[in-house]
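Progress against Task 2.4 (sequence-to-structure conversion) is shown through the following example record, which the project officer requested during the mid-term review.
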Amino acid sequence: MKYIKTSVLLLLLSLITGLSFGQTSPKSLRLFIIGNSFSQNASAYLSNFAKEKGTELIVGRAELAGHSLEQHWGYVEAAEANPEDPKGKPYKGNKSLRMLLSAGTWDVVTLQQASYLSADKESYNPYAQKLYDYIKKIQPNARIIIHQTWAYRSDALKFGRVAPNQLAKNQTEMWEKSRAAYHALAKQLNAKIMPVGDAFYAVASDKVFGFKKDPAFDYENPVYPNLPNQENSINMGYYWKDKKIVFDPNHANEAGRYLGGLIWYAILFNESPSKIEYVPKNVPADFAVYLKTVAEKTIKNLNTSK
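Structure tokens generated for the chain above:
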């Protein structure tokens, strides 16, 4: 019930204040994603949203687990030096980035940094700029949008790097410094940003809805199939696999993927996320309403801060 009460208030607030979404949105979109598992998480429900709205969405992907901007650019260099070099064709189907980008005309191409490096501003360049220039040579009319990834859950054992040999002390520092780095990159490239990281932190830091570590669970001696209380988590957290407990405070769970997708859809299609009706089956309906209000407020904050 707490979701419903707060969500109704937030929805009323959003209706009163209004948001700056355009009058028209594209009826079809060809989207190409350069990233890793975090971009896969955030875009997981895009096709569901597009189908609901009767929009044609075609998605191309150059995604490799844990990969950074530097690693993606390294593959480009290998392929450009020798198109037959297997090192330059690491993507699905043994394809190079040039081969994938050249498959038709792409309306939007997204870029992101690996989450572990996202709070280290110096890790972005020169690789982001080189990738941007490379994309523009192949797809000169494509809009390039920056995907701002999120900080790890508050109970993570370690957080992303903020400088060589220095890690963020906590979730807040990782979010603050990754946000600053992403916005600096967006300004450098004159590119729009998808503020998924801001939306995640808004949920995580909410006094009512923010995740709180379960103090009653025995983390040192877990007993199958018991799990800690992880209410309101938007990260995977603890789960059992083959009767072994796994802890993943980094990747998004179903609710986190839903929240990330709402931000992506709002930016890509210039539509209010509050209009999305689809809800994944593992996300409680009332919590989904709350996540839509967070997405809407995050987009509003992005628009008003320009």
